[in-house]
Amino acid sequence: MSTDLLTDEACGLRERKKRETRRALNLAALDLVEEKGFSAVTTEEIASRAGVSARTFFNYFPSKEAAVIGTTAEELESYAAQLEEVRDGESPIGALRRILAGMLAPASFDRELRTRRRRILLGEPSLAPALVGNNIRIENALTAALERRLGVAPGSALEPRITVAVAIAAVRACIEHQQNGGSGDLESNIDAAFARIAIGLG
Question: Domain named HTH tetR-type: which ranges (predicted)?
Answer without folding.
Answer: 19-79
